[in-house]
Write a structure and sequence with these properties.
Layout lengths: L12 H5 L7 H5 L9 H5 L11 H4 L3 H16 L44 E4 L2 E4 L5
Antiparallel strand pairs: 1-2
Length: about 140
């Protein structure tokens, strides 16, 4: 039985995206040992929110990434690096801190604070509900 002819495919679009390989900062600068006291180097492997950047972002190999992660964790333990970094924006006004005055347009109407008018108290006497007199 003959093999069915296969269509020739063009270049895979994913290959074009992955063409450029990231080169690690450690390899570029020839750093053999990652010291936990070298805060300036470690900050280059952290995001602005103080998270450790991934290998695909930094270009590290597995061994370098493990050394970087251990050094960052040790520096955090020694209070040289933050565990988390809060980012402040110029927008202002977060949750519950609206600039508008008054309730929102799509909010339900406010509930009354006083009870509705009508009989205030009732008492059950012989199975019937009767209005109780106010002592005023």
């Amino acid at each position: 039985m003959a093999k069915a002819p296969t269509k020739k495919r063009g270049k895979n679009k994913d290959n074009a995206r992955r063409a450029k390989k990231k080169i690690s900062i450690l390899s570029q600068e020839g750093i053999e040992y990652v010291d936990w006291k070298d805060v300036n180097l470690l900050r280059r492997f952290m995001s602005d929110r103080a998270k450790i950047r991934a290998r695909r972002v930094t270009g590290n190999n597995a061994q370098q990434q493990k050394a970087i992660a251990d050094a960052i964790k040790n520096a955090r333990e020694m209070a040289l690096l933050p565990y988390a970094n809060r980012i402040t924006t110029q927008r202002g006004g977060g949750r519950g801190n609206r600039q508008g005055d008054g309730p929102r347009a799509d909010a339900p109407p406010p509930r009354p604070t006083t009870p509705p008018p009508g009989p205030r108290r009732t008492a059950e006497v012989d199975g019937d509900l009767e209005l109780m007199e106010d002592d005023e």
